[in-house]
């Protein structure tokens, strides 16, 4: 940054570089990097509206941490710069946490412009594997979960267990002289950890017992670490002033509720008194913090706690990229975030499944343009079209299945009761899938029903499904009579008598085929990273395989750099996963037997 400023000023004169950032703390960091005074965007816009601060021709405006800048603020600054003949440079990481105000502009610009430079040489981490893992995490590549598991950076357990494990690890790092950060996703958890840290420090004699009340309900006294929550230029300290996100060591707690503090991690011993009113409203303990507070910081180790579905990809990415030496995540797998009556005995949570869900949960606010594009893409996706097809098929085929069940010997009352159960839909979906594979359901279902006693069965649909799966696993299907799979994944519905239903199904089948054609062409043209993992040289075989993988990825929202991502836990997805995996293996085998398989050396060069 400093080199950029000097180069620009060499051509445009001293003072031609203006540094801005969305927060005062970020502006301070930018000031150190640039070697000039900087401001936060809110202050600059305030002065600009008063007519005090304006840009001039030839100036360069650098806005750091641009992902945190609101769209309106960016629009106002860039419009003024364009009118004045100045240039705006946005700097930041679009994958980090976004603005509290309406945002998404920075991410949209990065995605829509083909000339946005990007730094890919990660220098923060001491472990090479973590450099690559951070980039995968940034993109939401679910394959990275296995990397963190392999390096023992994921600790699962109950909420109480992971809270204790994270806290003890943080304490241990602090005792070893390391800078460490303890990150939690909710303010309640942050407050709980802060209370524990303060209590332990009091017992150790590092913190005085009597303190003053803080905003978070805790108290602070001599020896405590606190954090301020609001900018206040009236509270000046040397050349600086009290800012949102600043951390302070308490040197004295006064009877009137005020605190004397000195800046944490500062060479200077200068202190300032925070007034009682400010302390009560704008000061918290600062041992544990949220991911928003952690963004922009660099420490030796970071310990991130995950215990609710509110965690987003962006917050996990921030939390897991603060530490130079180590970044660990502690995952609660006990449904702690649910009320007792909401607990499900059939829901088995694992650290892997929870982290997978988080990486699929994009929380960054989108621009209006991106929102429209995303909505259009979602409603035209294979996931949406397949869901619509299966919903229509279930309704359209119901009379057929009911008739078949009654003909097979089930009484009308029994069938009526079965139709009302959740397992009926699961059963009919399985029947449609097996029929698509070539099994004769009209012959098979009656045989299964007559195979054993069905009286007083608690879950008839599940029992029939189990029986028919057992039979079909033994007897191979006939491909000659198979209606087949749409886009290789969705079982085609047959026996539809209602013209409107049949037309609706045909329309969605056509839309799925068209969508897949477009996606496949785009993937081949842009050489997506996962395509290079397909070791298939024959163009025709390669294209058909890519098409099958694209269908799976779009239907299930796969974002990994490997073709299929991790093995899914969901039964329905696992069936599609196995189909796509089988297709890849068959294609690679065909390619090898034809003599077209490629062989690469360790550097990736093609030898044949």
Measured on Cα atoms, how large is the radius of gyration? 30 Å
Count the strands? 20
> What is the straight-line distance between the termini?
46 Å
Form type: elongated
What's the tally of helices?
Answer: 22
Measured as a percent range, the helix fraction is 40-55%
* Structural class category: alpha/beta
User: Largest sheet, order of strands side by side?
Assistant: 5-18-17-6-16
Q: What does the largest sheet look like?
A: 5 strands, parallel
Description:
This protein has 608 residues and is of the alpha/beta class. The protein folds into 4 domains: 1-118, 3-Layer(aba) Sandwich (Rossmann fold); 126-358, no CATH class; 380-485, no CATH class; 526-598. It contains 22 helices and 20 strands. The strands form 6 sheets. Strands 5-18-17-6-16 form a 5-stranded parallel sheet, sandwiched between helices. Helix 2 links the parallel strand 1 and strand 2. Helix 17 runs parallel beside helix 19 (460-474). Mean pLDDT is 84; it is low at 340-347 and 596-608.
State the gist of this model.
By secondary structure, this protein is of the alpha/beta class.
Looking at this protein, list some descriptive labels.
five-stranded parallel β-sheet; 608 residues; Rossmann fold; disordered C terminus; alpha/beta
